[in-house]
Amino acid sequence: QLCLTLGCWDSSALDLQRSTSAQPESSSTMSYLARSYTRFLHQARTSSLGQVRQMSAGHDQDGWKMWKKIFFLVAVPVIILGHINAFGLTDGTEMDPPPFVPYDHLRLRTKRFPWGDGNHSLIHNNHTNALPDGFEHKD
After folding, report:
1. Which of 12, 13, 25, 113 could pair with 8 as two cysteines, CB 3.0-4.6 Å apart?
2. pTM exceeds 0.70 for this model
3. Residue 132 contacts by C-beta under 8 Å, 6 or more apart in sequence?
4. In what helix (H) or strand (E) does residue 15 lie, and over which residues does it extend?
5. How high is the pLDDT of residue 76?
């Protein structure tokens, strides 16, 4: 039982545990499950350890050259095309504000703001934020 809780992986400790157990192997279901689980962990540890080492050992010394080529031939053109799409192909009408509709429930001023003229919010943009009577700029 001590070997199971501490995680002994030594096969001699497993053999010692089997020889010292007083009950037959099939008499108790819990002891059988514990022994089979211990065998499974022991087998999984020894068989998968070699596979991990084989899979991780195949690095090329010049692998950085491939990533450098990928960066300059794929990533840089994608970045340039993204900038052209975002800033070069914009239409001037996209920046026009929507038409002003004086809704009764929006832009209520029950008290003046403590800065400026009291009608503009702290983060006010003349182009996108309307005042209660409409936009400030007239085009």
Report:
1. 13
2. no
3. 102, 107, 108, 109, 119
4. helix 11-20
5. 97
